[in-house]
Amino acid sequence: MKKLLKFKSMPLIRKDGPAKEKDSNQTDIEALDRHMFMQKARTRLKKELETIAKDPFETWSIGPVADDPFHCQGTLLGPPGSPYSEGLFFLYIRFPADYPFSAPCVYFTTRIYHPNISLNGTITLELIKDNWSVGCKIPSIFVALNQLLLEPNLATAINREAENKYKTDRLQYHQMAIEWTRSYASG
């Protein structure tokens, strides 16, 4: 009978070196950093929202949902000269904990027929996708949305049907956008 050798079990060695356990102090510091970032973001958001409330804009509005400045509801009037001009569109805006270093997520909650807005409200907007900077503020978002409603950006289209209509039959595209606006965005 062969004698089995017993080996003491050894931990596997990782290619990138041994696994490192996080020091509890490091974890505490990271949590404190996140909290400080979030507090700074909350302060900035509250200040921006208060400024807007004191001097509101005619074509759009924004306010926190349940007093949480990280979750806001916005409204946007369709711009004159666009097929959306008779509409009032609602938006949901979620600001990240590291705002303004990261862009907010913006969604249309009102259905809208547009090449850059999906059927579930997702928006492909250059400002919040690629061109966000720390200097951007809430009004920047609404200015960019207004411009997008006036001039779709086909390079970043997400609604292929609307994109194809816009490219091939502009009149039919406008009629469809007007019809959707009347159906979903009129008071």
From TrEMBL:
<dbReference type="Pfam" id="PF00179">
    <property type="entry name" value="UQ_con"/>
</dbReference>
<feature type="domain" description="UBC core">
    <location>
        <begin position="40"/>
        <end position="186"/>
    </location>
</feature>
<dbReference type="InterPro" id="IPR016135">
    <property type="entry name" value="UBQ-conjugating_enzyme/RWD"/>
</dbReference>
<protein>
    <submittedName>
        <fullName>UBC-like protein</fullName>
    </submittedName>
</protein>
<dbReference type="InterPro" id="IPR000608">
    <property type="entry name" value="UBC"/>
</dbReference>
